[in-house]
Every structure is written in C-alpha cells, then in structure tokens.
Amino acid sequence: MAKKTKTKRAYVYKEKSPLEHYRAGAFIVRCLDSRFWRVAKHFIKSLGIKHPDPAFPAGGAKVFASPFDEYETEHYLGQIAKSIKLHHTKKVMLFSHHDCGAYGGFAKFKNDPEKELDFHRAEHIIAEEVIKDKFPNLEVETYFIDEKGIIRTN
Ligand SMILES: [Zn+2]
Fold first, then answer.
1. Which residues surround ligand 1, an ion (CB under 5 A)?
2. Phi, psi angles (nearest 5°) of residue 96
3. Which residues of the chain fall short of a pLDDT of 50?
4. Where in the chain are the domains?
5. 143 in helix, strand or coil?
6. For residue range 74-88, what is the model confidence (pLDDT) as tens digits?
C-alpha cells in the first residue's frame, strides 16, 4: 500500500492578501530598473489609480516601440488583452526612463539630457500607435522618468 503523503503548507512568510476581484485603474508598463520604482509608484498613487496591473520588462515602453525581438511586442499586447478581459482596464500608462540600460544608458546620448528626452518622445509616439492599432478604444498615456521626477510626453 502506498504511503499516505500529506502536503503541508510550510509558509516562509505570512501576510494576508485580498481575494476580491477588481477593476484595474490602469495597465502600467515600466522598466525593471529599480531606481525608478518608487517615484513611479508614488506618481500612480498620487493620481488616485486603484489596482494597477503592472508589467516590468527591461526598457518599459520600449517593448512596443523597439522590441528586442518580434515576440516581445506580441507578448505585452497579449498581457494588455488579458488585463482588459479580466480587470476591465481602460487605460495604459507607458513609462521609460533616464539612463536606461536597455537603451544603452545615458552614454548612448552622449550624456545630453535633451537628446535623450527627444529620443524617448519619439519612442513613445511609436509605442502609442502600436497599442492604439490593436486597441483603438484604450486610453494611452506616456511618461518619461528622470532623477527629478516624471514628464508626460503625450
Ligand atoms: Zn531601464
């Protein structure tokens, strides 16, 4: 006879999580670079956005404007589709940031902040078009983060 195995839940950390379903205030796409997590989080909170659905790919908005490979854009468009289906999302907020390694860092812009911002503005125009093409009714907002704060680019 097979030995009866008991599966135990051995918690390594305990904290309660809410189980209520929700409507996402926005789908957020921002870079995994942790230097700019805090400011983005505070900004989103300051807007009163509740239950954001987040995605943290390297480069943030880059996945829609100049993806690393052809599958990246499709993958994140799929994530937006799921957020809409599951959490009735009506808005996407795209972020990219200063000195982003996925873009080659600040050095790629010869340490010129205006050059860097202009480049990101152009990227955001493309990213917004790619998302609007697939989801015409979705509101898309684009932002650039630097060491002093957050700039709206559309
Ligand atoms: Zn980055």
1. 31, 33, 100, 102
2. -140, 170
3. none
4. 42-97+112-152
5. strand
6. 999 999 999 999 999
Burial (0-12, 13-18, 19+ Cβ within 10 Å), 2: exposed
Positive or negative, the CA dihedral 96, 97, 102, 103 is positive
Q: Are 54 and 42 in contact (CB under 8 A)?
A: no
- Which residues, 6+ apart, have CB-to-CB distance to 59 below 8 Å? 31, 68, 96, 100, 102, 103
Which two tokens mark 7? Answer: 């599966």
Query: Measured in angstroms, how far is the CA atom of residue 87 from the centroid of ligand 1?
Result: 27
39 Cα: distance to centroid of ligand 1 (angstroms) = 14
- Torsion angle (degrees, nearest 10) of CA 19, 81, 47, 151: 140
Identify whether the C-beta of residue 30 lies closer than 8 Å to the C-beta of residue 150.
Answer: no
**Confidence (pLDDT) at 37:** 92
Record the pTM: 0.92
Six-digit token string for 70: 């052809």
